[in-house]
Structures are given as structure tokens and as C-alpha cells.
Write a sequence for this structure.
């Protein structure tokens, strides 16, 4: 069920295990160490920082995959300081750039930026400085638009290059190059021009989110040659992951969760829509939490104010869209809650990554129900979803292929659904496999909901159930939603079922021996596998989108041609059944439909408590 990315042959060299790059004998080693301490105030290097710096200063093209907060900036700011000439940095957001410049100027490192919305005279001033014999800047930041659209800038870069003053080109947030990434920026694709114009200038590409296919895209689009790749584990051992069924009582659940686990601590609640942000915030305020909302339609001053209040601990909780979080460096964020389904696993990983920067234990709780999937899908198709600011400038007219982007988005979302529906596999494994990283679930040490509740698995062949579900979709005319199909399959006599005379359909009740969660996991697996397709039905009532299931005839033949479907289920329920009838079996464990709040300090998982009980009896 997990997504295994394709590993493609490419022209890059693994740098991570290579001793050469960790050597302390480079001619610049001493100077690096001195400046790292004196100028940047760091006592040592973090993992891979020394290696990356040595590789880029040796003149190689370098690709760095390092988690958010890992310290990517130092890997170019320190070389910029000690190298002759100027370092060009391409960064997707003016606000990110301004943060960096402010930081550099505080350290007394001369730096400047150019952006399209800057005063003309101010731009001229900076360009003149670039032309001068002795250019004072060590770093020049620009947005990708500037590089792609301004011939004037390119001329100045050429001029610097001729005078051997263009030390290095840095592409920050390099995943924006790729359509497979979650923050695609068309202008990033034009950055290949830099390598064409300056083939001998080393390029350093940095990102915190890249699957194998994104990395491939970036290397190709930028035209990197024999590039050295540094990557490190994306696992964040101090983050505790769980997915909790989202019910009508979701807000009460969130309030309770915070109260019991993180009262008066700092956190972020990610919401899908602006309306949700405001609703969740006001609800939690009523419950006595110090909280505020943050989204894209607020004016910049308002947003900055809220962010500042939060940074200074004047408020604890921010209810925000994904517009919030970029460049945020608050170390003591103790929880990240997702009130709705994130758009992709990469996005989810990055949003969760804002918790626990200080290495202390923090919670990541995702409230999930299947109808949110329909909602997100609809919003994506309408272009109504708020983007992370990195993906702004996302403009339909200059998109390479809008159709394929929609497809990619839908696929990314589907993987997220599959992640949520999976109540068996380790959450870390499910996330990391997405980054092309192998992970041994036993090293999770029960810090995710699935590892916590499951001790044993059984594998079940569910092919026959799958065939019945497909058959049922056909029998009922391919015009009902998945929840309706499940009702019929499990033998409900609800008004809706009766009204459509489904109680007379031959497969009515064929799945009554199955738990609701079990049947729905199989059905959703069929959607993930593209055997059943979910068609969004438009509705003018905002927020209430419905969908109908159809059969994909192209794929369904596999199912009837002997292709088996095997899913893993926890075997804890089985283990309990032979016990005494007065011991309540742990119903929740086979189904994903039962609230099982994973408090971060729950002493024992429910199922284990029950097992102990039955052992005693
Ligand atoms: P990234 O770009 O990878 O998300 P940043 O470059 O913004 O991360 O760095 C995150 C934080 O880590 C910054 O506050 C930075 O000062 C700090 N940092 C970076 N390198 C070191 C180091 N070697 N020692 C201590 N702190 C560091
Ligand atoms: Mg960064
Ligand atoms: Zn786990």
C-alpha cells in the first residue's frame, strides 16, 4: 500500500558517506572554523554542514537535502564570507529574503537583494555597486522572476563573471523547480540558464523536501553536472505522530487534547480554509486558550502582528492555513495539529517539522475523515485552496501543463488519504518511504499511533471482498457515494438505502460480518489503486461537496484476472476473542472509525491493557 518511489539512474555522486568531504585538511578549514565561531557564533558544525561547504568550495555542483531547521543557510553564507567575490542566492520569497538580509547585516556581512517590486532607483544603486571595481556585497539575493525576466541582471552577472567575481550560485528551496514538488514555481524552471551562461561557477541547490523524482527534476532542470548529493535522515525522533478520526466533536477533542497534553504550551493548528481558521480560533478562545488566526486574506500588518504575538508567547496557538510557517524558527513549538487533511505527504512532513526544533518531545496530530478528502479535492480542482507562500506566483497562464499539475495534486492528495487510512504501518516509515528513505519500524519505539497500538499483524487476502464492492458499485448504477455503498454492503436498512430499493440488491448485507473500518479501508484501497474512481459532484453550497464512485474498467480487469489484494490488519482482536465474554474486546483496533485520541503521555495503549486483563482472568 505504501508508495515506493522509482529510483532513476542519474549523474550524481552520493556525498554523504564519503570521508573526503569531512576532512579537516582543506586549505580553508581554519578560516571556516574561526568564522563559524566568531561571526556566526556557532560552537560547531551540524551534520553535513562541513561536508557540504567543503564540496561546494572545491568547485563541485552540490545538491543538499536537509530537513527544515537543519542549518542549510550556513552552508552558503559561510563560504560567501570567506570566498573572494559575490554569491548569488535565488530564493522564492521576498519575505524570506528580507529575513535573511536582516540577519546577515546584524552579523556585519554586507548583503543586498533585488526584487521586481523595489524602487527603480534603489535597484540602480545596487546594480551600480555590482559594477564597481570593489563590490562590497558578499551576497546578492534575488527572486527567480528576476533571473528569468531581467536581462539587465543577467548582464551584470556576466560582468561579474568576467571579472571572476561570481563565486557561487545558490538555489534555495530548490524543490520549487519541480512540478512533482508541493510548491511548484514555474520561474524556477528557467534557472537552467544560469548553468548555461556560467558553466564553471559552482551551483549549490538546497531543499528540505525532495522525493527521488523531485531531485531528478531539479538536477535536470538546473543542468547540474556530476553533482554531489548530501542527504540525511528526515526522521524526527522527537515528534510523535498520530491520526485521529475526525468527528462532529472534533473541536472538543482538540480542546481536550491540548488541555491534557500541552496546556499553555505553544502550537499551530493547520486548517483548510480561512473560514475554518477563524471558526477554530474563536472556538478555542471560548474554551480559554490564548489563540489567534492567520491566513492569506488578512492584511500584512495584521499577519505580522499575530506572528509576533505568537513568537513572543503572548498567544499560544495559531490557527492558520499553510500560508503560515515559512521561515518560522520558533524552537519550542510543542504541537502541530492538522484540523483537515493536508494536500501532500511532503507538505505534511514540512508542516509537522515546525514542531520540536529544540529536540524536545512534541505532538503531531492529524484529524482525518474521508469527507475532508472530497472537500480538499474539490478545492484543488477549483484552485480555491490557499497555497504556501512559496508556491505563490503560481499563475495559470504560465503553467507548463495545467492538466498534469492537477493530476499530480490529486495523486499527492490520494497518497495522503492512503497514509491516513493506514492503521497498520509505522507513520515514520510511511512518511520516510516517500523521501526515498528506508526506515526500520522497530526504531520508532512506539512513538506513533500505529506502532503504539499494534503488536501483531495478520495478512488478509481481501480480493473477494474487493470484487464484491466493485460489483456492488455497478449493481447500484455507479451513482452513489462511497459511504452509501458501504452502508448497502454492510446491510443497513437506512432511509436512503430503502428509498433506492437497495435492500433488494443481491449484495445487500454481503459484508455484514466486516467491521465498518475494515470494509471502508478496502474500499478506499480500491480508490487509491484507481480501480474505483471518485467523481466530485459539484454543489453550490460551499463546503458540502459530494462524490460518486465509478468503476475504472481499464483497471478492474486486473482484479478479475487473478491479481490478489493483500492488506495487513492488526491481529490483536483475534488474540482477544478466545478470552472471557465479559472482557470487552478492543473494538477500535480493527477499525479506523473509532476515536482513539493518542495523548502524548498515554501510559499504555488500549489493546495492551486489554490483553493484560484477559491474561489475568
Ligand atoms: P534551514 O534553512 O535548513 O531550514 P536555517 O539555515 O534557517 O535552516 O538554520 C536554522 C537555525 O539553526 C538557525 O537559527 C541557525 O542560526 C541555526 N544553526 C545553523 N547552523 C548551526 C550550527 N552549526 N550551530 C548552531 N546553530 C546553527
Ligand atoms: Mg532555509
Ligand atoms: Zn511507528
Amino acid at each position: 500500500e505504501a508508495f515506493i518511489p522509482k529510483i532513476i539512474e542519474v549523474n550524481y555522486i552520493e556525498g554523504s558517506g564519503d570521508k573526503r568531504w569531512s576532512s579537516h585538511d582543506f586549505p580553508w578549514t581554519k578560516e571556516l572554523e574561526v568564522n563559524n565561531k566568531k561571526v556566526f557564533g556557532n560552537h560547531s558544525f551540524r551534520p553535513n554542514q562541513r561536508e557540504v561547504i567543503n564540496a561546494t568550495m572545491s568547485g563541485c555542483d552540490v545538491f543538499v537535502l536537509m530537513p527544515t531547521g537543519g542549518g542549510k543557510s550556513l552552508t552558503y553564507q559561510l563560504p560567501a564570507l570567506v570566498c573572494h567575490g559575490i554569491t548569488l542566492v535565488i530564493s522564492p520569497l521576498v519575505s524570506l529574503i528580507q529575513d535573511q538580509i536582516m540577519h546577515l547585516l546584524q552579523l556585519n556581512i554586507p548583503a543586498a537583494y533585488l526584487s521586481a517590486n523595489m524602487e527603480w532607483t534603489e535597484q540602480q544603486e545596487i546594480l551600480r555597486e555590482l559594477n564597481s571595481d570593489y563590490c562590497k556585497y558578499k551576497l546578492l539575493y534575488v527572486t527567480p522572476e528576476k533571473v528569468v525576466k531581467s536581462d539587465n541582471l543577467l548582464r551584470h552577472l556576466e560582468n561579474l563573471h568576467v571579472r571572476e567575481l561570481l563565486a557561487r550560485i545558490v538555489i534555495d528551496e530548490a524543490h520549487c523547480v519541480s512540478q512533482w514538488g508541493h510548491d511548484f514555481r514555474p520561474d524556477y524552471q528557467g534557472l537552467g540558464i544560469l548553468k548555461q551562461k556560467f558553466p564553471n561557477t559552482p551551483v549549490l541547490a538546497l531543499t528540505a523536501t525532495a522525493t527521488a523524482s523531485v531531485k531528478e527534476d531539479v538536477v535536470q532542470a538546473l543542468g547540474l553536472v556530476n553533482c554531489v548529493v548530501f542527504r540525511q535522515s528526515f526522521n524526527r525522533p522527537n515528534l510523535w505522530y498520530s491520526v485521529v478520526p475526525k468527528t462532529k466533536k472534533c473541536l472538543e477533542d482538540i480542546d481536550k487534547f491540548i488541555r491534557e497534553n500541552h496546556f499553555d504550551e505553544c502550537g499551530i493548528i493547520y486548517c483548510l480554509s480561512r473560514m475554518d481558521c477563524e471558526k477554530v480560533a474563536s472556538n478555542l478562545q471560548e474554551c480559554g486558550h490564548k489563540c489567534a488566526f492567520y491566513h492569506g486574506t488578512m492584511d500584512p500588518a495584521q499577519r505580522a502582528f499575530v506572528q509576533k504575538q505568537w513568537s513572543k508567547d503572548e498567544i499560544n496557538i495559531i490557527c492558520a492555513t499553510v500560508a503560515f510557517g515559512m521561515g518560522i524558527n520558533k524552537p519550542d513549538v510543542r504541537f502541530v495539529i492538522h484540523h483537515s487533511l493536508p494536500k501532500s505527504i511532503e507538505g505534511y512532513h514540512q508542516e509537522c517539522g515546525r514542531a520540536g526544533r529544540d529536540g524536545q518531545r512534541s505532538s503531531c496530530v492529524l484529524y482525518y475523515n474521508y469527507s475532508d478528502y472530497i472537500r480538499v479535492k474539490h478545492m484543488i480542482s477549483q484552485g480555491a485552496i490557499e497555497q504556501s507562500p512559496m508556491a505563490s506566483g503560481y499563475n495559470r497562464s504560465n503553467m507548463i501543463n495545467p492538466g498534469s499539475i492537477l493530476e499530480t495534486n490529486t495523486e499527492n492528495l490520494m497518497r495522503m488519504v492512503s497514509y491516513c487510512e493506514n492503521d497498520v504501518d509505522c507513520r515514520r516509515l510511511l512518511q520516510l518511504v516517500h523521501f526515498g528513505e528506508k526506515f526500520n519500524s522497530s526504531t520508532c519505539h512506539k512513538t506513533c499511533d500505529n506502532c503504539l497500538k499494534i503488536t501483531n499483524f495478520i495478512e488478509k487476502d481481501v480480493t473477494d471482498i474487493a470484487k464484491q464492492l466493485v460489483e456492488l458499485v455497478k449493481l447500484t448504477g455507479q451513482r452513489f457515494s462511497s459511504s452509501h455503498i458501504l452502508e448497502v454492503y454492510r446491510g443497513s436498512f437506512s432511509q436512503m438505502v430503502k428509498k433506492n430499493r437497495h435492500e433488494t440488491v443481491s449484495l445487500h448485507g454481503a459484508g455484514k460480518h466486516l467491521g465498518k473500518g475494515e470494509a471502508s479501508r478496502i474500499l478506499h484501497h480500491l480508490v487509491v489503486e484507481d480501480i474505483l474512481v471518485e467523481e466530485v459532484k459539484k454543489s453550490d453550497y460551499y463546503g458540502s461537496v459530494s462524490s460518486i464512485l465509478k468503476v475504472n474498467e481499464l483497471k478492474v480487469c486486473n482484479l478479475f484476472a487473478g491479481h490478489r489484494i493483500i492488506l495487513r490488519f492488526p491481529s490483536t482482536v483475534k488474540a482477544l476473542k478466545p478470552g472471557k465474554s465479559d472482557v470487552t474486546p478492543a473494538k477500535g483496533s480493527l477499525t479506523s472509525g473509532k476515536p482513539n485520541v493518542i495523548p502524548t503521555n498515554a501510559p499504555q495503549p488500549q489493546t495492551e491493557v486489554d490483553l493484560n486483563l484477559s491474561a489475568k482472568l
